[in-house]
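Researcher: Structure prediction, please.
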Amino acid sequence: MKTLPSLTALLAVVLIWFPAFAQDKSPVDAGPYVPSPDSAVSAMLREADVGPNDYLIDLGSGDGKIVRTAASVFGARGMGVEIQEQLVALSNELAQKEGTADRAWFVKQDLFKTDISQATVVTMYLLPQTVNMLREKLLGELRPGARVVSHDYGLAGWIPHKTLEMELEEKVAISGSKRTVIYMYIVPAKVAGTWSATVPKSVASGLLRLELTQQVSSVTGRARFDGRSLPLTDARLLGDSLLFGLAGRDEVFRGKVSGRTIEGTVESRGVRAPWRAVLGG
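Model: Predicted structure follows.
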């Protein structure tokens, strides 16, 4: 992999290997290991609201600082994925000494081949190329509502739920600049497609058909009912929670997405009633 010195210098993770596009599919060195600043680690975990109910996976875990801090300070469980065997051994040794080995463990593994489906939080401090190669994996494996936290490099095409910018003295030695950015994303449910919705008679005399288009967490679409076609307004998708209105009307639809169904309430002039939609129904 051809790396730019300025990007490599910013990397605060271990040697992360990812599948090459060469014929032999051998791993490629994505950059050197540089310890992450403690304040950046704490900020990443705070922005993701990490707590005792979380299972965190750190992709490119280095000396294990993120996972160990998540366990010791925030009470979470976590796994670090690292390709350098000596750093995996060091991380497990430090967790043992700190008394967090029952909640923080580390494995030598290719991050692209790691099953992340059980994680509620994924953290990463990787080169931008690697971050964006992970986009489809994050969307495809993580459950709606899972949080993804990336240090310094955002996910192209994703809208952050939160962005934190800081100036850290520790970063000067790494990048020549104090600037540090933490991006926090929430994995959205999949809602693209045509949904058949049962709604109150005050909304439609029969079925309402929702035609939804999705770009990660951004949703647009139309509602067809009673011979009309109205665009959705103020559509928002946060994890498995969908909210939208209809142009020219005062209803506000709220729903929880669960696979191929959406269930929730529609509110009009202070009155709420249930509604339900089925994908392709």
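Model: DSSP finds seven helices and 17 strands in the chain.
Researcher: Thanks, that helps.
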